[in-house]
Amino acid sequence: MKNHAKPPLPESAIEDEKDDRDERDDGDRYRAPALDKGLDILELLAEQRGGLTRAEITKALGRNASEIYRMLERLVARQYVMRSEAGDRYALSLKLFALAHRHPPMERLIAEALPLMQRFANDAEQSCHLTVYDRGNLLVIAQVDGPGTWGIAVRLGSRVGLVDTSSGRTLLAWQTPEQRAHMLAEHTKVKGEVTIDHAALEAACERVRETGFSRTDSQQIFGVTDVTFPVLGPSGQAMAALTCPFLKRIDEYVAPSLDEATRMLGEIVQALSMLRDEGAA
């Protein structure tokens, strides 16, 4: 009679099998159902541009309606999720986005942006700065001076206005209506910020969106033309804004024109947005 007993497993295979079993046991042992439900909701909403109703969320996740209701209420209370004005749809707020600004991915954005910003500053002979939304206004996270004798720079780490700057309107223009409403609800005025009514701001954002960038006289410094392009993430929403406070030379020195600087800045931002897309892929 033949012996069909299996040969003993090598020691390394026994260890691998034990590790797999321990990993499965740990996964069951450390389950947190409430946390899982909350993360499921956040991940689902992250894929929806227009938000979802509670019924749609319940159906998509295959969960009980009452438990989804309780979880949504907590996520809204903690400002990770926001309701539409009509109160029937839910979408992600910018809280996770703001938290990410304090995390190493923001360092990566700066590291990718600085060489491109330096190239622009050298070619256009102008300064430029990179801003992100942070808790009600804008934060300057990178800044590069132009190579010439004359220039204007926004100090690194400065907080600048959300509604009266080219950077702020560009960031607002490339958000969903719900996210824009959330940003404006969190808005806190900085020193000297010009007041603007809601209708005028919406019209300004619409013009920026249609043009693809913002180019306007500065509302802070006379004689400066602010040129801003959005740095877009994979979802098509602006995660940052790159701005050149353009100064026109009036002496005999021939520097790149405003149109040339605008084209150069657009090329830099396109390259940076492509890098962000590749990094997310």
TrEMBL record:
<dbReference type="InterPro" id="IPR014757">
    <property type="entry name" value="Tscrpt_reg_IclR_C"/>
</dbReference>
<dbReference type="InterPro" id="IPR036390">
    <property type="entry name" value="WH_DNA-bd_sf"/>
</dbReference>
<dbReference type="Pfam" id="PF09339">
    <property type="entry name" value="HTH_IclR"/>
</dbReference>
<dbReference type="InterPro" id="IPR029016">
    <property type="entry name" value="GAF-like_dom_sf"/>
</dbReference>
<feature type="region of interest" description="Disordered">
    <location>
        <begin position="1"/>
        <end position="31"/>
    </location>
</feature>
<feature type="domain" description="HTH iclR-type">
    <location>
        <begin position="32"/>
        <end position="94"/>
    </location>
</feature>
<dbReference type="InterPro" id="IPR050707">
    <property type="entry name" value="HTH_MetabolicPath_Reg"/>
</dbReference>
<keyword id="KW-0238">DNA-binding</keyword>
<dbReference type="GO" id="GO:0003700">
    <property type="term" value="F:DNA-binding transcription factor activity"/>
</dbReference>
<feature type="domain" description="IclR-ED">
    <location>
        <begin position="95"/>
        <end position="281"/>
    </location>
</feature>
<dbReference type="InterPro" id="IPR036388">
    <property type="entry name" value="WH-like_DNA-bd_sf"/>
</dbReference>
<dbReference type="GO" id="GO:0003677">
    <property type="term" value="F:DNA binding"/>
</dbReference>
<dbReference type="Pfam" id="PF01614">
    <property type="entry name" value="IclR_C"/>
</dbReference>
<keyword id="KW-0804">Transcription</keyword>
<protein>
    <submittedName>
        <fullName>Helix-turn-helix domain-containing protein</fullName>
    </submittedName>
</protein>
<keyword id="KW-0805">Transcription regulation</keyword>
<dbReference type="GO" id="GO:0045892">
    <property type="term" value="P:negative regulation of DNA-templated transcription"/>
</dbReference>
<dbReference type="InterPro" id="IPR005471">
    <property type="entry name" value="Tscrpt_reg_IclR_N"/>
</dbReference>
<feature type="compositionally biased region" description="Acidic residues">
    <location>
        <begin position="13"/>
        <end position="23"/>
    </location>
</feature>
